[in-house]
Amino acid sequence: MNNQSSDKYQEKLTPEQYNICFRQGTEPPGSGKWLHHDAEGMYVCAACEQELFKSDTKFDSSTGWPSFWDPTAKSNVKTVDDNSMGVHRLEVQCSNCHAHLGHVFDDGPAPTGKRYCINSLALNFKEK
Predict the structure, then answer these.
(1) What is the longest distance spanned by two Cα atoms in the chain?
(2) Is 125 exposed, middle or buried (0-12, 13-18, 19+ CB in 10 A)?
(3) CA-CA distance, 113 to 17, in Å (whole number)?
(4) Which conformational region is residue 86 in: left (phi greater than 0), alpha (psi within -120 to 50 degrees), or beta?
């Protein structure tokens, strides 16, 4: 990301959101505002507002972070190898602005078997 883009998002996001989205931070488990949220609508990127996850793909994973079994469109998220923390994981990013959203794991429910474990601070919600 170039400095102009970075500055634009730094002005738009809270320091906590910026740390998660553009410095690969994470929020403490159980602290996110979307964890127990169950309204119908669309979860979007906090930085650029790209649609990411429909509310009907959200499930309770008991991990402490909002979890989804599928993105709205495969092209709206991208995965990147993440070898930090001494283990291989797949980082999930917004495909538009490259904001860090969380990680995806292969222990989710049918039909995909995926668990997109996403930071609440990386998301906004648009009610249906």
Answers:
(1) 41
(2) middle
(3) 28
(4) left
Give the 3-state secondary structure of residue 36: coil
For residue 98, the one-letter residue type is: H
User: What gap in Å lies between CA 73 and CA 52, rounded to an integer?
Assistant: 7
Task: Please enumerate in sequence order all residues whose Cβ is within 8 A of that of 97, keeping only pairs 6 or more positions apart, or say none.
Answer: 1, 5, 9, 45, 47, 48, 50
Q: Is 67 in a helix, a strand, or coil?
A: strand
Least trusted range by pLDDT, from 4-18, 26-40, 43-57, 87-101: 4-18
Q: Which helix (H) or strand (E) holds 116?
A: strand 115-118
User: Can 117 be counted among the known catalytic residues?
Assistant: yes
Structure tokens at 110: 């049918």
| Helix%, strand%, coil% for the chain, nearest 5 | 25, 30, 45
Which of 21, 94, 97, 117 is catalytic? The answer is 117
- Is the full-model pTM beyond 0.85? yes
